[in-house]
Amino acid sequence: MLERVTVPTLFPPPTYSHATVVEAGTKLAFLAGAVPLDVDGKVVGLGDAVRQAEQVVVNLGEQLRAVGSDLEHVVATDVYVVSSEPSVLSAVWEVVEASGLSAGPHSSTLIGVACLGYTGQLVEITATAVVPEEALAEEEVSQS
Q1: Which site from 18, 81, 84, 102 is most exposed, i.e. has the minimal number of CB atoms within 10 Å?
Q2: Residue 108's beta-bridge partner residues?
Q3: How far apart are CA 9 and CA 116, in angstroms?
Q4: pLDDT tens for each residue of 80-108
Q5: Residue 3: helix, strand or coil by DSSP?
Q6: What residues contact residue 110 under an 8 Å CB cut-off, 6+ apart?
């Protein structure tokens, strides 16, 4: 279903793949950016990019479960961090690695940006994931 490709003529990526190929006919989920908000809509971890990254991963997991997928089936992400400091971006990436998102490894881009949509927001992750066939079968059973 998934083929993760590391191109031998390019620099070997530390914890991501250069490309992921998904076989035609596979159901994909394109997720809106996961943000560091709690259930009440308040920003978690003000001023703390690592804490916000942890909340973003939790929220991303919820988004994935809602569509019948999980972190293991993510094929691509864009990780946005409000910072121009490589050390801050690296600290956020460590959270991504620890979450299991990079277990595939998936294709990813880590981006330092000037600001994000919510006041005090430091991290956001967009994702594309495969919805496994088991989830599709369960969905068909529940609709009948």
Answers
A1: 84
A2: 77
A3: 35
A4: 999 999 999 999 999 999 998 867 778 89
A5: strand
A6: 79, 81, 89, 92, 93
